[in-house]
Design a protein that fits this description.
Shape: globular
Largest sheet: 8 strands, mixed
Number of helices: 11
CATH class of the largest domain: Alpha Beta
CATH superfamily of the largest domain: Spore Coat Polysaccharide Biosynthesis Protein SpsA, Chain A
Order of helices and strands: EHEHEHEHEEHEHHEHHHH
Number of domains: 2
Structural class: alpha/beta
Radius of gyration: 20 Å
Strand content: 15-25%
Length: 294
């Protein structure tokens, strides 16, 4: 297929040693019912046969393939962003895939809802062999969502479509950390832009033991750095009360996790931080009771 002269949508797929899954990811893009797109694949120093597997699809002029030394997923995504031509940007990780109507539905939604800057949805969680695990998703929000995002990341990277101007205005992936850089991106965007949540399944999300995101301890550390940086850099994004509620929610989640790992002392320390920030929040007291009983 010929490359569109002006692709409306740029799709970014970073990959590193995902030969087992990369074909399914790429084929799900090429099978989209909406065709005015470009697919930018950045091979972040793979040592497997990723390049050989992709050779047949590189004849499709909509696909652009880049190779670099291993520098991490954020650097790979930023490399693609620097090359992207579309007015809209999507991300698809190389171990996940999309339903065929994903792009068509989101492009139509942007035409119907021009006041929104990011449109996102839900995921179907699958396991390493592709079997469905669950369709249950966390609660997600629309509009000015910063006060919800400071509590936890509700935007699924692989379902989102964002206007390119969001990146032009607030920058790309920060690259400060190898874990949760997507949270950093969407949290920053939530300070300035409007989000539309659509309760549809826009991606199949694979859960595996060797994913960076599966390391919960590192994720908590990164999330703490992210929300702390955000509060300093975007103090007007929400009220001080909403900031405190968000930080309290973070300490609640970390307390429950530490309690589940047998660290009762660490969990209690996190609960005290939550209660200092939000002493009248019922959720904090319920979490404290759960930690004490555990």
């Amino acid at each position: 297929m010929n490359t569109p002269a002006n692709p409306l949508v740029s799709i970014i797929t970073p990959t590193y040693n995902r030969a087992e899954f990369i074909e399914q990811a790429v084929n799900s893009v090429l099978a989209q019912t909406y065709t005015n797109f470009e697919l930018l694949i950045v091979d972040d120093g793979s040592t497997d046969n990723t390049r050989d597997l992709l050779e047949p699809v590189l004849t499709d002029s909509r696909v652009r393939y880049f190779q670099q030394e291993n520098q991490g997923q954020s650097v790979a995504r930023n490399r693609a962003l620097s090359e992207a031509k579309g007015d809209f940007v999507c991300f698809l990780d190389s171990d996940n895939y999309w339903p065929a109507e994903k792009l068509e539905k989101q492009v139509a939604l942007f035409r119907q809802q021009p006041d929104y800057d990011v449109i996102y949805g839900d995921v179907v969680v699958i396991d390493e062999v592709g079997a469905e695990v669950t369709r249950n998703n966390m609660r997600r929000y629309s509009g000015q969502i910063a006060r919800y995002m400071i509590r936890d990341n509700c935007v699924s990277m692989n379902t989102a479509m964002a206007r390119r101007r969001c990146f032009d205005d607030l920058g790309a992936m920060s690259g400060k950390r190898r874990v949760a850089d997507d949270y950093d991106l969407w949290l920053r965007f939530s300070a300035r832009f409007r989000f539309l949540y659509v309760p549809e399944f826009f991606a199949y999300y694979r859960v595996m033991d060797d994913q960076i995101s599966s390391d919960k301890t590192r994720r908590f550390d990164s999330n703490w750095q992210i929300i702390t940086d955000f509060r300093r850099e975007f103090p007007d994004a929400m009220s001080e009360q909403d900031f405190d509620l968000g930080f309290a929610a973070f300490h609640n989640r970390k307390a429950r996790y530490l309690a589940s790992q047998g660290s009762k002392g660490g969990a209690l320390a996190e609960m005290l931080k939550a209660l200092r920030l939000s002493p009248f929040r019922r959720a904090s007291w319920r979490s404290l009771a759960a930690v004490l009983l555990k």
